[in-house]
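Job type: complex structure
Entries:
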Amino acid sequence: MALVVQKFGGTSVGSIDRMRNVARRAIAAQKKGDKIVVIVSAMSGETNRLLGLAHQMVAVPDAREMDVIAATGEQVAAALTAMAIQNEGGQARSLLGHQVKILTDGAFTKARIKTIEGSKIFSTLEQGQIAVVAGFQGVNEHGDITTLGRGGSDTSAVAIAAAIGADACEIYTDVDGVYTTDPNICPSARKIPRISYEEMLELASLGAKVLQIRSVEIAMKYGVPVHVRSSFSDVEGTWVTGEDKALEDVVVAGVAYDKNEARVHCVGLNDKPGVVAELFGAMADKNISVDMIIQNVSKESHDRADVTFTLAKTDLLRAKPFIEEVAKRLGSQEVRYDEDIVKVSIVGLGMRSHAGIAAKMFRIMAAEGINIQAISTSEIKVSCLIHAKYTELAVRALHDGFGLAKAVER
Amino acid sequence: MALVVQKFGGTSVGSIDRMRNVARRAIAAQKKGDKIVVIVSAMSGETNRLLGLAHQMVAVPDAREMDVIAATGEQVAAALTAMAIQNEGGQARSLLGHQVKILTDGAFTKARIKTIEGSKIFSTLEQGQIAVVAGFQGVNEHGDITTLGRGGSDTSAVAIAAAIGADACEIYTDVDGVYTTDPNICPSARKIPRISYEEMLELASLGAKVLQIRSVEIAMKYGVPVHVRSSFSDVEGTWVTGEDKALEDVVVAGVAYDKNEARVHCVGLNDKPGVVAELFGAMADKNISVDMIIQNVSKESHDRADVTFTLAKTDLLRAKPFIEEVAKRLGSQEVRYDEDIVKVSIVGLGMRSHAGIAAKMFRIMAAEGINIQAISTSEIKVSCLIHAKYTELAVRALHDGFGLAKAVER
């Protein structure tokens, strides 16, 4: 008898009929003798509808109130799914973030889970019920509703799986696994049967939308086996697990791209120690994550520095006023923005032991005439910032160049 | 400085623009120096949309899960209203049933409030915030979400007003007060400036949709002055207060009708002691309220009794199976149902000291050729069950017959 968490995304619960499918799948798993915890996202489109309502009211809605609204999407989906299970002859009960008690920090709209109490879930399971937990939501220490950010239901699922010691966390989605790259861009993309947490982490953080990055971090930290699979078939998907020898032999596991970043270019800052710390300290205080950072001596004056960095497009509107305020205070003459960029990356555990992978990536880009605006690397990843118009060209060239189109059975 | 509860119904928060109106009204009241607690219903249409979703899933949804879904309507409205207040330059925070802590019994979809903690509301007010509380909802002792039944936001408002010792509870609605009867039926209906709790209670229980009955009970119990008024104007509405001499002089304050009841006729029950107790005990066990009850010797057999009673049409579907089961067990040959009925009533404090009011009512009905199927009376009310087709005729005849069309200044 296993303890299994099944997470269903927005398209998997996107209609009454699809919820019935979810119900049948959960009941079938329970009938095999497993204890089942179902985590649901909001019905597809619902979160956008709710955000739209808030934005009709005010351009920049209060984050606390935004979460109160957004959390209702999963609340409704959880209760409807519980009803669907009951209607198919099963027993189920919905549980919300404050009922399970998923305690988060106080960062509204992008809260992080601190602790999860398992007792409510266990007592529900012990009654023979399927526990249907609303994803994406928690409460802070004051009892305010918080949400975990886009894709936060993955995080809910993996965190709950870790908290209750589940044997597996199944992530049901509208694709049947993790691919070597986006099949919509590259028809020769292939499904990866097994991938390490580390690789998945890089792919997730680079915009492969299959799993939310924090969910992979938590899975890695607690060793939760994650199975990404299709909610519309019974085909095995991709297992995300700890690394082993077979996984380490693959130099490049996948090619990812991320169109969600914007580039900010602060021209002519005072070139003194602490200037950059002040700029990025201010960003951190506002809970805005910065990704790539490049500092150059300014073209305009040798005692000044140009600083370029990228951040999420969704944070840009909010960040602009104080970026400009801080930049001005630090002596900058101008701040420029560019949203027409993409970050293309290659990821693979094997990079750690293979030299020349980055150089090969740059050669492939050069051969296609693509100008690289910025580079960042990690142990198992190389990323290049390029003009957005080259996205498809770059992805296909890298996918072919690193031989991913050939069957990589592992 | 007064402490004022302002409750806004579904039409008053039915659109983004109307919520802005609500916000301006609350802020204006706060600027006069009062502390303001706003209670909101779901945006008009939203509760029906949510119930519709549940009924798409299953014909008779689980009541616990139904409440989880239904409560989101007020949750969204409360957060949007808080945003509206912020957008108009005020400070506001939304509070949900489980946050305020509105503790109810466990009767899902029709829960009753047991206690309300005032501390969260007070601490919010002390920060200079307008507290925007989601109406209609609470939690039971297990932390499950419960709802208070249709119109439950009135109850939330008055109960909160009582709990925090508010100076007044303003009920903003789409009509500008309580009328002598339904103006849609009777053009000569007049707004009543002041009415007693007792009269309002009878009117509310008889289908005058302005205030939910339990809200009036609570207002009476705790002496909360209630001001029913229009959310679209600043005109004084109707004050519902304790009785005084002026109110007692009015013999008939209003004429009400209620189309929401169905008649059940159990033919030929065993005429033994305890039979009726068993029938209605079974109803009470299922939490179904019965209104008028008439027991006759059966026309068909003298050792048998016919029992007729009325209940809410909304309970009929659920009640039918066990009414028939119990009736059969008690020897009944047949159970008949009639949904084509209406209950017409006259209400007035002055009835207590005036004889012949009921007789006058029956004469008025007879003069119009209206057959009375059942009668029930209280100290300050007389009700007649008649065929639904006579509704308008009966209401107008009674309104005129008791001289309500003439200005009743009080």
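Summary: Chain B has a mean pLDDT of 92. The two ends of chain B are 28 Å apart (CA to CA).
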